[in-house]
Amino acid sequence: MESVARDSPAERAGITAGDAILSVGGEPVFDLLDLHFLTSGRRFLLRWATKRGERREKIIRTGGNPLGVFPEPVRIRRCRNRCIFCFVHQLPKGMRRSLYIKDEDVRLSFLHGQYVTFSDISEEEIRKILRYRLSPLYVSIHTTDNVLRRRMLGNPRAADVMSVMRRLVAAGIVLHGQIVVCPGINDGTELERSLVVLSGLRPGLATVAVVPVGLTSHRRGLPPLRAVSRDEARATLALLARLRRSLDHRDAEPFAVAADEYYLLAGAKIPGRGAYGSFAQIGNGVGLLRRHQDDSRALFRRKRWKRATAGGTVVSGVSPRSYIADFLKVFSGRAGARFVHLPVENRLMGKNVTVTGLLSGGDILSALKGRGASRVYLPSVCLREAGDLFLDNLSPEDIARETGATVHLFEPTPRGFYETVCNVTESIF
Fold first, then answer.
1. Helix and strand numbers, DSSP H then E, in the chain
2. Which 8-state DSSP code applies to residue 393?
3. By C-alpha distance, which of 420, 348, 351 is closest to 391?
4. Model-wide pTM > 0.85
5. Exposed/middle/buried for 61, CB within 10 Å: 0-12, 13-18, 19+?
6. 223-255 tens-digit pLDDT
7. What is the DSSP letter of 290?
8. Are strands 375-379 and 406-410 parallel, antiparallel or unpaired?
């Protein structure tokens, strides 16, 4: 393990960093899920090996508190598919090494909401899901036609996802699915057919996000694909509206939900809150703009505002530019300072990639040069979780040094922006 919390049951038992937990209550511990599940009781027999190789055991009494050990990072189970639309395969060289890792790990699906295909899930993994009640899980489905799905996954041996999902939902596991739509392959009538079939798994399969394929300019040697057109986006939204009338129930979570990008591509109005239910798929780009609009209204209804000391330049990707511009216009009036929006074109990955979270430090730097900005506001979604590096290994400090501006990071919500601008909370470079 990496570390042990001070004054925790583990430390009081004599466990130290570098020791290895062997078993709990006589059951072997293979990963952090085993550890968390087996140590959730108030009293158990713990066996461990010290970093010197000595075997020890002790009855641990936690009193309902956590054991207090922090395991080493999960050894990620790698994906062996070669999906025709895989975003990792389309990445340019020279980016952060972790971005090139493809995972197919149900533990990460449960812990972090990452999508898995169940393409080579083992019986042991299924039993662990059922035993530990790992719910919800997030599943990449794409189509219910097993032959087509195997072709899309680039894996002729991929398991039948419907069979796996039926078993899981029958045992009470909640699933959320996604369909990455590739024009001419799994759209139109095939998309409609798949969604009707999948609706038979409700309520266990709670939602299915319909997401347009993302294509970079680095697809050399990969299967030919094209982006979703405006007419196709409108047709897909119309299809989902038809299905919503027949599939959705008043007391249920909205089932087939479109990613925000479909509305942007179609030039359509973002629907109200009711179209997103509990916003279960917001991490997949479904409902972000609706949440932003609602949160903006709530912020602007506040009667007491702290005034900004100065304005600045606010960076985003190209796709939300009209929403950000409208927000900043009102915000500037309330804050008493002028904030200018800078939508940045993604040159590293290509013009089809328009979301803010995939902007590189180099593209942001190029867009800022020559503008004379003294203050720059960057949404934290552009950086890795540690908040220190962009996709291309540049840092906010690099932006500050090259432009001479102070760089402020903010949580990408209206409230997060307000708190940074008005010095409620701030991260400065």
1. 14, 16
2. S
3. 348
4. yes
5. middle
6. 999 999 999 999 999 999 999 988 877 667 899
7. H
8. parallel
Rounded CA gap, 178 and 116, in Å? 10
**Per-residue model confidence as pLDDT tens digits over 149-181:** 999 999 999 999 999 999 999 999 999 999 999
Q: What residue spans of 271-376 are helical by DSSP H?
A: 288-300, 321-335, 361-368
Letter for the amino acid at 167? R
Residue ranges of domains in the chain, CATH in brackets? 3-70 (2.30.42.10), 88-286 (3.80.30.10), 294-428 (no CATH)
Residues 345 and 394: beta-carbon distance below 8 Å? no
- Tell me if the bond preceding 396 is cis, omega within 30° of 0: no
Which residues partner with 15 through β-bridges? Answer: none
β-strand 175-181 against 20-24: which pairing, if any? Answer: unpaired
Short-list 173, 171, 170, CA closest to 106: 173
- Do residues 208 and 237 touch, judged by C-beta distance below 8 A? no
Q: Please tell me the distance from the alpha carbon of residue 34 to that of residue 132, in angstroms, as a whole number.
A: 8
Amino acid, res. 20:
A
Extract the tokens encoding 184.
């001419």
H helical segments located in 314-408: 321-335, 361-368, 396-403
Alpha carbons 175 and 172: distance in angstroms, whole number: 9
Q: How far apart are CA 196 and CA 208, in angstroms?
A: 11
Q: Residue 429 pLDDT > 70, yes or no? A: no
CB atoms under 10 Å from CB of 63, counted, come to: 7
